[in-house]
Amino acid sequence: MNKECYMKKALIEAKKAFDKDEVPIGAIIVKDGEIIAKAHNCKEIKKDTTMHAELIAIKKASKKLNSWRLTDCEMYTTLEPCPMCAGAIINSRIKKVYIGAKDEKSGAAGSVLNLFKDYKFNHLVEVEQGILEEDCKKILQDFFKYLREMKKQEK
Is 44 noted as a catalytic residue in this protein? Predict the structure, then answer.
């Protein structure tokens, strides 16, 4: 599978979040060409600020591999990771992260700050941005448009 196909799988996860009234962000983790973890945001449902797609995917991959070290793994995420998720990606030793859309408000891969490049951590994560960027932006735009319409109807 190529990187666009993997990002489409992450977008399927984002759609699951959308359908649950969660901010539609999806993430998958791949090792040796096989998807070993899939996740989407669950902050609202779980009432837990740490339930980001990336963190859930890392937990699932670690469980599957029986290791916190995800050294030979790659992550595909539909939105640029926040500082919390970027830190978890670094600490779990993920090899490379493929990012769909930028997050101009809280992105930690270059939009607000760059934890992957500007700091001297003991593990360096490769980053590639803009994979299916328009599709990844659109699902977020559609979600926030939907929320605004719902608020109008409540009035």
Answer: no
